[in-house]
Automatic annotation (TrEMBL):
CDD domains per record: YjgF_YER057c_UK114_like_6
InterPro entries per record: RutC-like_sf, YjgF/YER057c/UK114
Name used for this protein in its record: RidA family protein
Signal peptide: none
Gene3D superfamilies, alphabetized: RutC-like
Entries under Pfam families matching the protein: Ribonuc_L-PSP (PF01042)
Origin species: Dactylosporangium roseum
């Protein structure tokens, strides 16, 4: 297993601020707080549900690059400026997490850009993941 490896999404924020999209540390994958930016286009939707979906696509990409999958997530943190935006996102969260049901926290707080309506951070343990076994996990 890797001892420590940095994963980048290609976001300009990583270099400007000084962080990695994810850090692989042995079997653990720590994915930084991830917003609904489409990093290829550097755009963000206005709708919180669309942002939540893009968050999970970004997280999924980082986990896959680390040799893990959403199935390996053991901890998730949801950060939102407006608590009322959380419930509309539940169907997206359920679809991505399925039966994984990680430990979770939702916190109301300010985010660094007023366009951001949700930020999601995850920790995963890649031992036994479907991706590590070569099975993948289509979403």
């Amino acid at each position: 297993m890797d001892k420590r490896r940095l994963i980048s999404s290609g976001s300009t924020f990583e270099k400007e601020i000084g962080y990695s999209r994810a850090v692989v540390d042995d079997d653990w994958v720590h994915v930084s707080g991830t917003t609904g930016f489409d990093y290829g286009a550097m755009t963000i939707a206005d709708d919180v549900v669309e942002q939540a979906e893009q968050c999970w696509r970004n997280i999924d990409a980082a986990l896959r690059e680390a040799g893990a999958s959403v199935d390996d997530v053991v901890r998730v943190r949801y950060l939102l400026p407006d608590a009322a935006d959380f419930e509309p996102c539940w169907p997206v969260l359920r679809r991505w997490l399925g039966d994984v049901r990680p430990a979770a926290t939702m916190q109301v707080c300010g985010l660094s850009d007023p366009r951001m309506r949700i930020e999601i951070e995850v920790t995963a343990r890649r031992t036994g993941s479907r991706v590590a076994q070569g099975l993948g996990w289509p979403r």
